[in-house]
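JOB MANIFEST
job_type = single_chain_structure
chain_count = 1
residues = 455
[input]
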Amino acid sequence: MLSSRPISFLRRANGSFALISQFKNQKFNASTYLKGKESEPINNTIGYFLSQNARQMPYANALKCAHQNVNWSFSTLKKHAEALACGLVELGLRPGDRLALIQGMNAENIVALLACAKIGAVLVPLPDIKAAKDLTRFIELVRPRVVVSATKIGTKNYYKMIREVVPELSLSELHLPFKSKKFPFCKQILFTDMKEKPKEGTYQLKDYLVYGPFGYYETPLRRIAMELDSTNPGLILFNDKNPDKATSAVYSHKNILNAGLTIANTLGLKQGDRVMVPKYTTSPTGSIMGNFSAFVSGGVIVYPAEEYSASNTLSMLSKEQCTTLFAEPQELEELLNHADFSKNTYDHLKNVVICTPLGFDSSTIVGLLGQKLPQVKSWVVSGLEETSGILTINGKLVDNAEVKVVDGSLQVKGPLVATGKWQDIGHVGFETNEDGWVNTKFQNAKIEGNNLIIA
């Protein structure tokens, strides 16, 4: 049955559409409201924040990927991100264009996101794709101008899969652009494996790193930066490996940085803290909360291996002297009950951040963590895709977030609320009323005192 309330679309300045629900004549039978404490949010772009970190603490460690022999400072990270950004501009990537990424837990994840942020492009890390038909559907949906992929991850051969999806590659010559009938929007395919020789119609990522030097007024990034602001979309995440079931959220620079700031402030993270992100590059747990809580606070992002392994994660957690671990309940339970758990020491570990959906009962996993690591503080971060994966921490509403319950329906507002979702027609805003409240899927919510309860 269709709703009787009028619905209209509002075209935003950035070209996306917001669905407006007009409540002028609707009477609320019951309404409760809760707001987190006010604090100063970040209103800068990710690129600006990267430059600021590199200027204020150039030699502080920023990224550690032991399996790639990567141990970069903020200045080095900025150098590589800007080199890729300049290369992507040469390839024709422009503000608003999408870059699809197929990658393991490697440094390329961070570099690609920062490079896209520098030029106003949008990074789309694709979920773990196992079949060519799923890759075809994701490319049709995302419509990326550039695809960046690993040649292989474990047993999955992505070069072979991409050749199956884009058969025109076999007709191309080395280093010359291909033309795909099915994907006319896709202009370049780059592979990240430096040891692999270039293939027909494709490029190696390393060949498009443009390091300069540039004069202050000559760098192509300076002009682009002047046209960007914190509301520009920077990241699209899908919540399912099946493209027919997956829903998505589009996150702005402001969403991403403020999610990281919220967690960093709550945990008291500071420069030099080592934050392990064992997986989750295609979910808010890793790509937003884990990566950017370290990035915003001046900490070190630690990736233990290209592919997730419980035994390797435990070993690297001890070896790298990590102070904070981000995990979801299933993986955390596996780590705590693993046979290798007692073989390592965790003297430096202070915080374990457990990322769960809103309404998830985390009492069992928190209890297990208390038994295994009694000296460690547990932080249960619960949220929605619409709120960058974070809305409450240990049951308390986060700073600057606002929630309202209208006849059991949960509505949210604040700097963490994503800009919308990505569909076949493009960037579409969430259903929003005239006051900026975003409707969510929860219909049995209530507020008791200062607590948000999801039935």
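[summary]
Residues 7-42+247-440 form a domain with the Rossmann fold fold (CATH 3.40.50.12780).
The chain is about 25% helix and 25% strand.
exit_status = 0
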